[in-house]
Description:
Layout: E1 2-18, E2 21-34, E3 40-45, H1 55-64, H2 75-85, H3 90-108, H4 112-115, E4 129-131, H5 136-145, E5 152-155, H6 161-171, E6 177-180, H7 188-199, E7 204-208, H8 217-226, E8 231-233, H9 243-249, E9 252-255, H10 257-260, H11 263-275, E10 279-282, H12 289-296, E11 304-305, E12 318-319, E13 342-343
Parallel strand pairs: 4-5, 5-6, 6-7, 7-8, 8-9, 9-10, 10-11
Antiparallel strand pairs: 1-2, 2-3, 12-13
Amino acid sequence: MEIISRRVDLELVRTWTIARGSAESIPVVVTEITTCEGVRGLGEASPISRYGESVETVENFLRRVDPARLSCRDIAGSMTYLNTLSPHDMAAKCAVNLALVDAAGRDAKQAVYDQLGLGFREGVHVTSFSIGIDSPAVIREKVLAAAEYPVLKLKVGVPDDHLMVSALREVAPKKPIRVDANEGWLTKEEALKRIEWLAADGKVQFVEQPMPAKTPVVDLVWLKERSPLPLFADESYHTAADVEHCAQCFHGVNVKLAKTAGVTGAFEALKAARAKGLKTMIGCMIETSVLISAAAHLSELADHLDLDGNLLIKNDPYAGVTAPRGVLSFASAPETSGLRVRVRNSR
């Protein structure tokens, strides 16, 4: 078995700003694993600086991986091996996991969603489209440009939150929106005040990660008990191991493959959350169609989807799932098995 990886700098259509900072481009690491049977699988790591990850940490981890210890016919065993190398490095493990899952599907001539027993219904799964933090004038431009998408997700967590929401509503007065504070509200009183204001809008579906993940449980529970809108955990929910905490403090969770170390971890995290009665969302970072397509295979386990990372870039090297008018579709995917992804313009 062989692992090949390379860095790709994803160029953003617009400057991307959230509560933690801004970027013009986002680096990821794409991988390709070829099994001893000659089956190829594609993977991707989208490292999250919030968790101390970078392209360098991903590359360092991948250099430590012994390809002979990996098998697309024993993915669980392969992940157990990866965990012996590091308890962290989830983005790097995600890249390997995706490539193994893709290779396993190709080897079996099945799509991943069928291998997982989930299936995929065309015309059903709607993704939100994200609007990053910006000035009111630019927010209006972004919302106009996103007119085809039926649901918007607005990044907040700064002093001018109310100005951004108002600017969005000037252009799209009735469109459903989701609000993501990215840990930007530092006290429970501030968070409740802003959530109550958002609730008065009447079209806000939920609020994501209103306070820092390190916030004391008593404060998170206080906010959950009083919030007029559902609260979803993101930075507070990494894997299925976090489900008890999140069931206590939130109404739902945002599962990202970059946090769960790939498809198999996300599958378990989604099932665990649903078993606890939590609402589920599948989210993403800024990613290529490899990671976005991988997440889309789990759509049947989600109440909400935020799989737009590939829509926010202009140099996606891959083709896979699409989202015409915000509805996820594999109808025109270039492959029929595995992750259903191919290098763009290749045959």
